[in-house]
Amino acid sequence: MLESYLTWLMEELATAGSSLLDLRKRVSLWYLLSAVGFAFVVFYWRYGKHGWQRLLPYVSPKVWLSRSSRTDVGLWLCNRLLLALLIPKTLTHALWISGLYYYWQKQGLTPLGLGWSTTWVMVLFTFCYVIADDFSRFFTHWCLHKVPMLWAFHQVHHSALVLTPFTVFRTHPVEGVLFFMRSLCVQSVMVSVFLVLFPNQVSLWQIYGVLVTTFLFNVLGANLRHSMVVLSYGPRIEKWLISPAQHQIHHSTDVAHYDRNFGVLLAIWDRLFKTWLPGNDQQTLKFGTGRAIDRTGVIGHWWIPMMDCADVIRHGVAKRCRNLKKRLTIREP
Amino acid sequence: MKKTLLSLLVACSTSAMAAQSYEFGVTLQGYDGSATSSVSYGGQIARHALHNSLKKVAGKGDQAQMNTYLSSTEAGRVILDPVSKDGFPVKQSKIDELSSGKDLLSSAYDGVITGWPGNPTGQELLEQLVDAAAKTKAGYDPVNGYDYVQLISKFAMGAVFYNKAVNHYLEEKLEADQHPNNEAYKPGTAYTGKEHVWDEAFGYFGAPANGLSLSAKEVVQITKQNPEVFAKADANGDGVVDLKSEMAFAHAYYAASVDASAGTNYFHTIMQAFVDGRQLISDAKGKALTDAQRTELKEYAAVIATAWQQVIAEAAFKYAGSVYADLEKIAVIEEAHGDVSKAYRNYVKHWGELKGFALALEAAGRDLGNAQAGLDRLIGFSPVLFGDAQVVALDGKGGFVQANAGPMQEYKLNMIKVQNLLAQSFALEAKLNDKTAGMSDVLEQLNAAAQSAEND
Ligand SMILES: [Zn+2]
Ligand SMILES: [Zn+2]
């Protein structure tokens, strides 16, 4: 029993470690390095031969060895172990998609029969999938901020005092489950609809086994978003794509920056929801929530959100009771 | 990746050794008999002939006859299939000419089969199916939706041939202390222990010895005794097809049939691994196999076991698609108030093939993980019948109990799920009669692309 448990533990940790070389994972060494290369070129072009100095915070030991950064890694590993238990490994998606695929057909959805080549279907499906996926990420994130009960959990991500590429894993397990359900919904709907419309033609456009947009996003410095390196895409591009500097604004303690730039890939959702702010290479920001959670470790980051969530629920109930009483007392005379 | 490497390895090693047929000389040290071949699997071919004949009599529903080919070992049994045809004469006509004293039942899987009501062992299930078939007309039970000819045949192939080969000969019998290679298999035989163990597994696969020089289509036609391929089948040119070495049976036929339809390579993958493994044993020249040699041998055995399992799963996949198509046809005919009896007959037949192959996957003691429970639940104990009923259990007297299972047409969704489950669990390639529109391929891509809980 103990032995099999230890084997499982080691295996899970080993797969976590293998992310560092896996092109499908944002924190793979290749993307960590490509981000440096990308930023180096941009800074050289903008600031000349001293531009590279702006990259120094990326490798600063003070950042990497800080408590906040250690908590990132701790949460990453601990969440992995927990989520491996909470989220069923395979087949869930297959069952959902099978069900929906069957349902659409029963509702009268039939193949389009446009005679399109498989390449065009691939391009169309990839495009639609990326848009749907990106919007669902934006919207889930927006909800995490706007719904107090959800913010209780999402504050974990915002409690980072410094940003390193591993801050991307700094989440509460509950948020992990939410994001699993998000991907389940998006994938089920997109894949099932496309399978009915274009039977036997649906596939994703991939590079090295990675979705093409994910690959480009990661090669072009996705890891800078969670880092102390400030890189803006400039006002024109930032209207369309979220830059590292824009995501750092999302993490800022400045009240003016609260609830801004929820997007992952595309900036259009933020413009639509009026939450868009441009970034700037010169911006200097402070990160964190300014609450006690900022200075706790893994246990605190698991525990405090649950207490906060319970508080929110209790307040909600209390408020409802008060309102009810008020209404009753008004009616009485 | 691993698989491509392995097949590359297999390809390289054959070009070096160039054994193209399953024929090997005597290597046993100290052998002074007159035999020149060390290959022997007559007992396995006898069981293939028993199975083929059992299938023939199951369609007549005569219990005594069925038992003759299932559990009896009596002398003088006639081979009912394959028999000589115009343009395709067959050498043997009696089971004893292949091997005497053999039966099917005692070689069948004795572990529990969860996919049948009452959790019988593999052997018990074969007996139950034969008993039940005897109570029907021509092996067809429209009330419970059973085609016993299909159930018996498809399950028996798994419970006997596949089970014996992968669960027995290619598994425990490869260990060093079992039938060592530096001794005769039995006193007086011309073959060593390991040579014979490997031959017995090969015999159960059912491929003709010259399988590597045949195309998948030709293998299929040999089973069908098509006179056009007779010359190819009669490898030694003696004017008759020797069932012992020139006929294609059971899963060898299904492997070739899947390959012929889908362009996959199951038949030759399995055949090549058998030939290469046997070559390795021959090359040991009658000495005990070293640990390194046995390790290599086990790799060939693993290639065989994996591909063999895939062949059975491919067959189940195909028939799940047929069941789906049958339900669609039934719906159309019902809509038009036509006669559904023929479509229903096909539905029951295809379900029997699906169920038989699915049960066969369980019948070799291999861990199927989540797939086993999934297949049991999705396929159920019977097809969903008119009136939306399905067999759910056995009563105290061995009769089938039915209960409501939801709309009959909804069973189509189960077939989609079955196909996905099979494709994902066994990494299927051919996927004939795919009713999922290629879902498993997309799922595989999505799993690789972005199965992450990470956010920003
Ligand atoms: Zn946020
Ligand atoms: Zn962030």
Automatic annotation (TrEMBL), chain A:
InterPro entries reported in the protein's UniProt record: Fatty_acid_hydroxylase, Sterol_desaturase/TMEM195
Domain Fatty acid hydroxylase stretches: 127-275
Main location: membrane
Location of this chain's protein in the cell: Endomembrane system
Biological process according to GO: lipid biosynthetic process; membrane lipid metabolic process
Listed GO CC annotations: endomembrane system; membrane
Pfam family name, one: FA_hydroxylase
Top-level division of the source organism's lineage: Bacteria
Bilayer topology: Multi-pass membrane protein
Keyword Transmembrane helix: yes
Example of a GO MF term: iron ion binding
Entry keyword set: Lipid metabolism, Membrane, Oxidoreductase, Transmembrane, Transmembrane helix
Transmembrane segments: 29-47, 81-104, 111-132, 152-169, 176-198, 204-224
Entries under PANTHER family matching the protein: ALKYLGLYCEROL MONOOXYGENASE, STEROL DESATURASE-RELATED PROTEIN
Protein name as it appears in the record: Sterol desaturase/sphingolipid hydroxylase (Fatty acid hydroxylase superfamily)
Annotated source species: Marinomonas communis
TrEMBL record, chain B:
Taxonomic source organism: Marinomonas communis
This protein's record includes keyword Signal: yes
InterPro entries: DUF4856 (IPR032331)
Lineage: Bacteria, Pseudomonadati, Pseudomonadota, Gammaproteobacteria, Oceanospirillales
Keyword annotations from UniProtKB, A to Z: Signal
Cleaved signal peptide residues: 1-18
Domain of life: Bacteria
Protein name: Uncharacterized protein DUF4856
